[in-house]
Amino acid sequence: MNFEIVKTDQQTNFEEIKDLYYKTWTYSYIDLIPQLFLDQLNKDIWHPEKRIDNTLIARVSGKIVGVCSYGPARRIKYQGFGKSTHFMFFLNFSIKKLVKNFFKLL
């Protein structure tokens, strides 16, 4: 399965990214955080367009299957070490292959 990794831009479908966040949160965190919290989630709580300049997306056949947001380290003691991965989300895909390629681009 071929994929491409690109930076987000004005043509990025941010609604599709919101949908990916929603699907991964409501599936991945079952039994890890209270179900009541997961049940109140909706796509409108995420605003990926605010990180347009520091987000990479992975696409397979034009569909977004992965998202990686990055930027300066959040903790003061790690600032100056370069970019830090803030979070990654993936739908059904070879995660190992995607993560390896995301880090090549950071």
Automatic annotation (TrEMBL):
Q: Which organism is it from?
A: Companilactobacillus nuruki
Please state what the protein is called: N-acetyltransferase domain-containing protein
Q: Which InterPro entries match?
A: Acyl_CoA_acyltransferase (IPR016181)
Q: Which domain of life is it from?
A: Bacteria
